[in-house]
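lol so apparently i was supposed to do this last week
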Amino acid sequence: MIHYVIQATHPEAHLFTVSVTIPAPDPQGQVFALPVWIPGSYMVREFARHIVRIEAHANGKKIALQKYDKHRWQAAPCKGSLTVEYDVYAWDLSVRAAHLDTTHGFFNGTSVFLQVVGQTAEPCAIEIVRPKGAHYKNWRVATSLPEAKGKGGAKRYGFGRYQAENYDALVDHPVEMGNFTLGTFEACGVAHDVVITGYVPNLDMPRLLADLQPICEAQIKLFEPKTAQAPMARYVFMTQVTTDGYGGLEHRASTALMCGRNDLPVLGKPEMTDGYQTYLGLCSHEYFHTWNVKRIKPAAFAPYDYAQENYTQLLWLFEGFTSYYDDLMLVRTGRITPDAYLKLLEKNLNAVLRGSGRTKQSVAESSFDAWTKYYRQDENAPNAIVSYYGKGALVALGLDAKIRTETRGKKSLDDVMRLLWQRYGRDFYTTPTPQGLAEDGFAEVVVKALGKAASPSLVEWLNRYLRDCVLGTADVPLAMLLTPLGVAMQFTNSVERVDLGVKTSDAQGWLKITQVLDGGAAQAGGLAAGDVLIALDSVRVLPNTLDKCLSRYCAGDSVVVHYARHDIVAASTLRLQLSTPAVNLIWKNPSQSPQTLQRDWLGQPATRR
Ligand code: ZN
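anyway here it is w/ zinc ion bound
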């Protein structure tokens, strides 16, 4: 057994001290490595750069440690057990790394636990030690790591010894420590903890628990309708609250989240705010990943390679389909109304349609290049890339609608997810040879899931749909696909609006261009990201007056724009264009009784006669 010890030795200096003891190190000289990325966040982050001191010991003597690349070390050959001890600087306030101060500590194993190369299948013991000093005497621990049995084993929420069956498991259970607020509910007989770190006045924890519970039960039952068997023994939602944070990262039995203080519900105020709806959607998203990506995985992630990029074209399925189901589960469980759900679909649809990058990059390509493009977006992103989240969710919606329509409601995308689960997910952590989905394996799963309902014309449609909308850059033909579900698409043109074809920000009171969109007036006139707009036709323009200034013009009008680039003022004449119309989604009065289809889809009828 490999033995790790971690302690927040200097919270004020943001330092965790970690040691790893190997009873039988490689006689040739044991190699250690720290992951360069964390699964779920597809970017090389070089976590080893935060190791500030490292040394090795055996039999009370110091052992030479040779660093041989950015994230690997080799100890000199030694007899008996070997211990490596190191300090990790933890000051990344995100869900992806580690963060420590005198108010709390949080870490992902990928940031703090060295991998013992050649022994990653060995079980691990993890001693989580309370920081020294009276200030920390009330701190507790929240993690989905199982407590070790017997002497020294941690009690629930306590410091002490935990265990993991191998390195993969060790780094898939993040740990939070501090004076957090804790709530608990049961879903399908499994305990779910809700851990909130950070001060939130008048937090309505009972409401949060009451809202999360049906979302979790509905997801468990979606994948296991007969047994309602959850895939984990317990689950932990851990949320770090900041002023305006947002983010989440999925794990096999927990999720690390960030949200803004005002996203969380307030005692005595039962209304559904946009912030709370977004937070519930985020919880639902990460929870859905418990099945879709933490157990049903692309073959490229089975197993993960922590040393480099892991390439797959399938993130449109693992992130996009998860994005489709996150909000869908909110409406199916009655947390939001069908009207609110349609607004969310509309928002995503418009976000996808606004970027011309969707005509240049497919969602399969966007998945593959996530490491260098989606995760490293620059000012040209809307012109160059498509989101595998946003368009992936539309691909899921279109496919779900088509299956429901063609099978007259007998089958749906739920059946496809269930077959993926049965084939790849259910036994992922128990079988000795876990398999992932092949890069070209999705179509066959859909056909199998539809069974007899997979008519030759539907199979032909499916292959064309995946070729055009997933491997190709075609828009998902939603206007047609959504009609049978009682949803109509309209382009709004009630007010004729012109724009410059830019995205802007408020830079200390100045209107700064952050992005220049392909084909727009600003690009044609030579304006660039970083330019500060000063005036339109000699009228000063400010961050909050651009729209008003533009409302005095029509498409085709010319306007002289004064702007500054690198503090040099220049002028350009722009020819204004009509803004791209936004798409509206509306419930259509059902002509041919789509109410059954609609009710099955949403869990409740959206339209009433
Ligand atoms: Zn996700």
